[in-house]
Amino acid sequence: MKHPSLLPALVFAARVIAFPSYASLAGLSEREFESILPTLEYREPALPPGPQKDPSAKLVNDKAHPWKPLRRGDIRGPCPGLNTLASHGYLPRNGVATPVQIINAIQEGFNMENSLAIFVTYGAHLVDGNLITDLLSIGHKTPVTGPDPPHPAIVGGLNTHAVFEGDASMTRGDDFFGNNHDFNATLFDQFVDFSNRFGAGKYNLTVAAELRFKRIQDSIGTNPQFSFVSPRYFTAYAESVFPINFFIDGRRNDGQLDMDAARGFFQFSRMPDGFFRPNGTRSTEGLDQVFLAHPMQPGANLGQVNSYTLDPTSADFSTFCLLYENFVNETVKGLYPNPTGKLRKALNTNLDFFFQGLNGSGCEQVFPYGRD
Ligand code: HEM
Ligand SMILES: *[C@@H]1O[C@H](CO)[C@@H](O)[C@H](O)[C@H]1NC(C)=O
Ligand SMILES: *[C@@H]1O[C@H](CO)[C@@H](O)[C@H](O)[C@H]1NC(C)=O
Ligand SMILES: *[C@@H]1O[C@H](CO)[C@@H](O)[C@H](O)[C@H]1NC(C)=O
Ligand SMILES: *[C@@H]1O[C@H](CO)[C@@H](O)[C@H](O)[C@H]1NC(C)=O
Ligand SMILES: *[C@@H]1O[C@H](CO)[C@@H](O)[C@H](O)[C@H]1NC(C)=O
């Protein structure tokens, strides 16, 4: 090589060309950001959709939304709800979507209540999405070739660990063990076993409470880096009730999810034939029952197994607004300490949308980048 000094620049150029339009811009150096920005098409974020006019039960596994197998390059991730919506065409089948598409899909396909839909979608988009192109991937792991090990923020979407995705999932492993997003058959066997033991073969709130506790105890005992603080603390409990609230046919409405249906959603991103969405909107109903069966306070292992230590700085169920404030002040601000121009504008717009999901909660909006 005659001009070794050129090498880093060339490799860096390759990395820039490879930058996916849906990857998060968090954590890039100023130099990286400046080279990537001109390759991205800026899209003004559209307003979040409101509630549906008619949320009654209806056939959602319909002719217009058939399940289809994955094509090469289609992205799926840790969330069986979004994976299923993509595999039925409620979301783009490639697994890359705008927040508005996601909100419309989770409302139309599963009847998620409007403010929760807004809150989780913009929460995820702020930390895992591309705020310039307005795109979020439901879990990519595309390695970006480059001189450095791939940046954690470049490989990610919803697979990104610790900002939204977290430990002690029911059917996905902890990030520490190397795969936090694919369906894990051993863990699903445990899901079935718990449903047999505590639900006579169905997943219900009694099972949810026992399995939630078991997954936490497993992580405490096996994952030295186990973390169970806000926001994961909240999403772990919420996701334990989602299968009951969203995956049960709206004509049955009995709180008992059968194992064929469960496997369809968790493993194959597939609704049962003839599936009706719930009858009316649903949110986190049942969460209290799951929590109160085995109340756990937020905390983490301290680098060794069985060293779970409470973290009084984390939000918990008695300090809900702190979840919001810490997420904005620390998580989002930590990812984007000093944004300017279009990026700052997009952050502020998406932070406003995120806060709309808390309308009526009594929390006060915070403005880490000033008001526009
Ligand atoms: C009605 C809509 C939704 C349903 C039914 C749903 C369902 C679920 C369930 C059951 C899990 C737990 C998986 C497990 O423990 O094995 C989960 C995980 C997850 N969901 Fe969703 N979800 C929905 C909407 C969303 C939205 C809108 C987002 C973000 C845009 C999202 C992001 C995630 C992520 C990142 C995880 C992984 C958490 C982890 O395991 O660390 N979900 N979802
Ligand atoms: C699935 O989870 C089990 C239990 O945590 C673990 O031992 C196993 O290695 C995981 N399998 C894969 C393929 O990741
Ligand atoms: C779950 O199923 C078991 C077995 O049928 C039953 O005893 C329990 O009451 C059910 N729990 C709920 C909340 O439906
Ligand atoms: C949905 O609930 C309403 C009452 O709120 C009821 O009239 C209707 O029959 C239910 N639909 C289905 C499919 O069960
Ligand atoms: C917030 O809720 C109030 C009623 O509770 C409603 O009038 C207002 O339009 C809502 N604002 C947003 C931004 O959704
Ligand atoms: C978040 O930052 C705002 C200032 O932008 C401040 O008023 C508020 O107290 C902070 N909240 C927390 C929990 O740090």
UniProtKB/TrEMBL annotation:
Keyword annotations of the record: Heme, Iron, Metal-binding, Oxidoreductase, Peroxidase, Signal
Which branch of life, at top level?
A: Eukaryota
Instruction: Enumerate the Pfam families for this protein.
Output: Peroxidase_2
The record's annotation in PROSITE patterns points to:
HEME_HALOPEROXIDASE (PS51405)
Question: Residues of the signal sequence?
Answer: 1-18
Q: Name one GO molecular function term.
A: metal ion binding
Cofactor field:
heme b
Residues in domain Heme haloperoxidase family profile?
63-298
Would I find Lipoprotein among this entry's keywords?
Answer: no
Family classification:
Belongs to the chloroperoxidase family.
Q: What is the name of this protein? A: Heme haloperoxidase family profile domain-containing protein
Which species does the entry assign this protein to? Answer: Cyclocybe aegerita (Black poplar mushroom)
